[in-house]
Amino acid sequence: MAEKIVSGDEVVVVSGKNKGQRGRVRTNMPKLDRIVIEGVNIVRRHLKQGRARQAGIVEMEAPMHVSNVLLFCASCSSPTRVGFREGGDGKSERYCKKCDASIPSQRHPRNERERDS
Ligand SMILES: [Zn+2]
């Protein structure tokens, strides 16, 4: 099934305590509807001494729910909702509901799309 947000996307947080922050999606967890965004939603974990690890405080990015973010559209420079439509090659593609630009996934960089003949 097509996902609205995939890893590599630039997203903007629109609700919660990290509202307004922007970053790139590092990890996508479609089954949980959660994503990890680079540099956003940093939490501190106080770790106890373990067998192979020292005790201490570690900062890490915590996953957040995808409903808290919007995809950032490079074409119109704003957070936007994503739609799906059939692209020129018959596959479904994502597009910006504001400016109608298609939004390719960064995860599978494609060669220049040939809008052919
Ligand atoms: Zn747009």
Topology:
Layout: E1 10-13, E2 22-29, E3 34-37, E4 42-47, E5 56-61, E6 64-65, E7 69-73, E8 78-80, E9 82-86, E10 92-96, E11 102-103
Antiparallel strand pairs: 1-2, 1-7, 2-3, 3-6, 4-5, 7-8, 9-10, 10-11
Bound molecules: zinc ion.
Main attributes of the structure:
single chain; 117 residues; mainly beta; SH3 type barrels; six-stranded antiparallel sheet; 43% strand; binds zinc ion
Short description:
With 117 residues, the chain is mainly β. The protein contains no helices and eleven strands.
Give the overall shape, derived from the CA principal axes. Answer: elongated
- Strand line-up in the sheet with most strands: 6-3-2-1-7-8
Structural class: mainly beta
CATH architecture verdict: Roll
What fraction of residues sit in β-strands?
A: 35-45%
Number of helices: 0
Major sheet characteristics: 6 strands, antiparallel
Rg, Å, rounded: 17 Å
The helical percent reads: under 10%
> Quick one: CATH class?
Mainly Beta
Bound ions, cofactors and other small molecules, one mention each: zinc ion
Overall mean pLDDT stands at 88
Helix-strand pattern? EEEEEEEEEEE
CATH topology: SH3 type barrels
First and last CA, distance: 29 Å
Query: What is the number of E strands?
Result: 11
Uncertain ranges: 108-117
Number of domains: 1
